[in-house]
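Data availability (excerpt). All sequences and predicted token strings are deposited with the supplementary files. A representative entry, N-carbamoylsarcosine amidase, is shown inline so that the format can be inspected without opening the archive.
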Amino acid sequence: MRFLTEQDTRLLDRTSWAKREPFGLGARPAVIVVDAYYGALGERRPLDEILDAWPSACGPAGWDAVDRTVGLLDAARAAGAPIFYLTGLAANPNPWNRKTRPAPRRRNPTFLRIVDELAPQPGDTVLEKVTPSGFTSSALAPLLTAAGVDTVLVCGEATSGCVRATAVDACVLGHRVGVVEDCCFDRIEASHWMSLFDLDQKYADVLDRDAAVTYLTGTAS
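Structure token line:
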């Protein structure tokens, strides 16, 4: 892992806190798609060309993750796994956000629209949230319980922000958690990779899209 120091690597070889084997996933999964809206992506153009119009965009790395997520959602639907989309609440300023500049979503009516490539289908659930975690400000937790879900696969944006917060809370609430690394994206590459590392060490199993698809296929009833 290129962002670890030599001391980090030595510590992981010896500490009792290091993860030695996967935590494991359960038999009744759901997929949680976090903040896959246009404001987090912008247009399909180089990042430097879109930041003036889309100042919150992640750019091509985000679109690459979106394209991989299409196959993940196809597998979830084929397996009968419920899909939950988390998005922001347009009318709320997000009081947890300490940044002082006005939110771009107020200036762009498509900011919070889920991208067409991942558009919710009949039977999917879309929930608005006003905090980083989808569990603290929406009905996600009781809906997962009602569906009998024991495992969540989390993907979307930002790996170091709302994805991480949602994955941690899912673990705290007793769910098995998988984070689909190549279906997640972030504005800062170092934040993306270090968040995946930390989640995998403490709260989740980090897996790629192909492994997630294989897992979902195996849970089909």
